[in-house]
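Standup notes
- DV: blocked on the single-chain target, sequence here:
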Amino acid sequence: MVRTLEPGNLETKTITTQRVVHLPFAPPSVHPPITGVRGNKRWLITYYAFLLAMTVAGLVYGYIFSEAFFGSDKSPLVEAVMTALKLFWLIPLPYAFLNFYSYLRYPVFRRHTPPPITGSLRGRLYFRIVTRGTNPNLVANTVRCARHVLEATLSPDVWRIEVITDNPLPLDSPDGQVRVIVVPEDYQPPRGAKYKARALHYTLGASHARPYDWIVHLDEETCFDEETVRGMYAFAREEERAIAQGTQDFPAIGQGVILYGNRGIVNWLTTLADSIRVGDDYGRFRLQYEHGKAYFGMHGSYIVIHNSVERLIGFDHGPAGHITEDAYFALLAQSAGIRFKFVEGFMYERSPFSLSDFAKQRQRWFGGLWLCVLSPGIRLSEKIVLGTFMLLWTVSWLCILMVFVNLAYPTGTPVWLAMSGGVSFAYYVTLYMIGYLRTFGYEWRRSKAVFLLRLIAQIALIPVFSIMEAAGVFYGLFSPPKEFYIVQKELTAGL
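- DV (later): unblocked, structure below
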């Protein structure tokens, strides 16, 4: 492997932290750091008691609704067939256990506050926003938010903002801190990449970023705060130090957690449904990053990556890699020996505005990830975990179907099966609760009544959310995505 950072060759930039900025979409009380050993211990006891309570609740729930309390007068043949069909209830179990294990191993609410920004960083941070240019107000707002935070946090020579767009946008700044890169209409990558992958691949040559700079990938609506900048800066410094010391050949790729309920909510149903995405970030995604892997791929925003790594992998991988270009890139990077790490801090985005966009978003993910799994360009060893997950996701609707079948035509359920299904359901509920508590924890201080009412809605609507997710799977099965669908992100009146 070729090292792109030479030991002992770090340029010196003195960075001083300026005033702390908290933007309106991210109240300073949202994620208060846990301080004090005694308080930390009390919190851990409460946290693990919650996880234990969810486990016990699942076991008790399953036992109560088993044949121990609810027998059946159906014929043995009917009972045997229904019991066999109820095995579909175990489909979510591996996914649920994996996430729950991550919660146990890496406590969700115990956060390590990133250190103040001091010392030197060889590379500059390029915040790269990719857009088609059809949401000009939204992109302009994202640039303003990013610049506001960066000017208050970092020295001007340490950061730049790039807007990669298919359509020209008047966002270039006179001081050169913000630059718009327009992808030529006639640009065709050699292997035929389209959509976001095409724009990203073009930027590899059009950007002013040097090989040793860092790229932070953002979506059109992604915003962040000062603490997130400190987390990314600390990650970059640590990786540069590891390269300089010769302990690794390439800098790792970093990714953190994205929240969906802190920027003004358009649709409460889709926002609460997206709580599972936050729970997922703290579950299987954090678990893989803590082990240096990206078996499940990665998200397309909140990526902190060294430019040498981005150039090494590229984004021109043909049709298999341009529907979910993020996951395809991650699997190729993993195959090349690049490691991954979890980054402290949050970024803030919005959930889909409509149920139609929610389903189309899931359709793109479902179809795009299957393209990654089936692609001959990725080694089997790198995609076997994702492939297993996709198989379970493909048949996950059978679990939901059998819940309703059993309600309409109840039969006895063996104790072991009922308790296994009960634990699986309880851990699934835990995913949504973790996502809700992390996203809306600040509401507890504002209004306990509002917080609790929304929490009740979060749990009560889980069957609805399950149907919404299943609809996306059906959509992807019967109408595989043929293009990169972008959900509506900009309100008519602008943001």
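- Follow-up: The two ends are 46 Å apart (CA to CA).
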